[in-house]
């Protein structure tokens, strides 16, 4: 093996539960999108990732999921990991429960699928076709499909970006509960500053190909969006994102991708 080959490191899967990224770069057609990015995620840590539309958040998640290996740098991820994206991507020709266990080794196990559908509150929909689900229900199925793999790392790319406000609040609460129950690490890409501060231990702001800013959210859960600490962190994050804090509590949409 040549020196060249040896130095071109890509994704390493380990039994460890933490994520280690050193000097990660990714370019498309000569345009650098991720530029020598460093990031560590501890076992069981909930990290939220914010950033302007097009800054490379989804690119980073796809790399961590193992869907893109045209990279340089060192990336170490747990082998047991799964992802859910903004679009639930269910197979329309498979009943809901079969979607949940699709790709698992062995015979499709309906009881197993139903157990995870129950965790996300829609086991009564196990036997229907995906096209009969609402957007929120489809997103829950997508979450069940990620959880059935008992991941050590759960990658969530704007999973609730397309949901209405009420469904979104319920889904946020669900993700918080699932995280506490399963103890996995989560990397959540979101365009919603308030959501990031409600859920995460640490909020990152991506810019210019790297992690430009971060804030540790050292507040007890459930969090009070009206507390002075919460408000101060929100103001700081919005400033980093180049958005002015509005008088309302409405979270701004700083990511055009997420328009419902
Ligand atoms: N497969 C691809 N081919 C070419 N350009 C891409 C590809 N995927 C992403 N990009 C570009 O990389 C940049 C970052 O994209 P993305 O990671 O989707 O941003 P974000 O998720 O932060 O909105 C964008 O400019 C996008 O156009
Ligand atoms: Mg994206």
From TrEMBL:
Keywords assigned: ATP-binding, Cell membrane, Membrane, Nucleotide-binding, Translocase, Transport
Cross-referenced SUPFAM superfamilies: P-loop containing nucleoside triphosphate hydrolases
Pfam families linked to this entry: ABC_tran
SMART domains referenced in this protein's UniProt entry, alphabetically: AAA
Highest taxon, organism lineage: Bacteria
Molecular function terms, GO-annotated: ATP binding; ATP hydrolysis activity
Lipoprotein is among the record's keywords: no
InterPro entries from the UniProt entry: AAA+_ATPase, ABC_transporter-like_ATP-bd, ABC_transporter-like_CS, ABC_transporter_ATP-bind, P-loop_NTPase
Residue intervals of the ABC transporter domain: 19-233
PANTHER family the record matches: ALIPHATIC SULFONATES IMPORT ATP-BINDING PROTEIN SSUB, TAURINE IMPORT ATP-BINDING PROTEIN-RELATED
Name of the molecule in the record: ABC transporter ATP-binding protein
């Amino acid at each position: 093996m040549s020196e060249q080959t040896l130095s071109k490191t890509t994704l390493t899967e380990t039994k460890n539960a933490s994520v280690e990224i050193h000097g990660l770069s990714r370019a498309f057609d000569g345009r650098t999108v991720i530029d020598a990015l460093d990031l560590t995620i501890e076992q069981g840590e909930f990290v939220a990732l914010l950033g302007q539309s097009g800054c490379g958040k989804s690119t980073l998640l796809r790399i961590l999921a193992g869907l893109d290996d045209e990279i340089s740098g060192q990336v170490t991820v747990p082998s047991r990991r799964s992802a859910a994206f903004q679009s639930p991507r269910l197979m329309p020709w498979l009943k809901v429960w079969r979607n949940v266990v699709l790709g698992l080794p062995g015979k499709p196990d309906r009881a197993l699928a139903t157990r995870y559908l129950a965790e996300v509150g829609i086991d009564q929909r196990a036997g229907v076709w995906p096209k009969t689900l609402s957007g929120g229900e489809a997103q829950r199925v997508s979450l069940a499909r990620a959880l059935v793999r008992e991941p050590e790392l759960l990658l969530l790319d704007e999973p609730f970006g397309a949901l209405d406000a009420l469904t979104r609040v319920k889904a946020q609460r669900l993700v918080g509960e699932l995280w506490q129950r399963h103890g996995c690490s989560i990397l959540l890409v979101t365009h919603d500053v308030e959501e990031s501060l409600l859920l995460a231990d640490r909020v990152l702001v991506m810019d210019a190909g790297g992690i430009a800013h971060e804030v540790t959210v050292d507040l007890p859960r459930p969090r009070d969006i009206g507390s002075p600490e919460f408000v101060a962190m929100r103001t700081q994050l919005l400033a980093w994102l180049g958005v002015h804090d509005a008088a309302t509590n409405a979270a701004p949409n700083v990511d055009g991708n997420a328009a419902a």
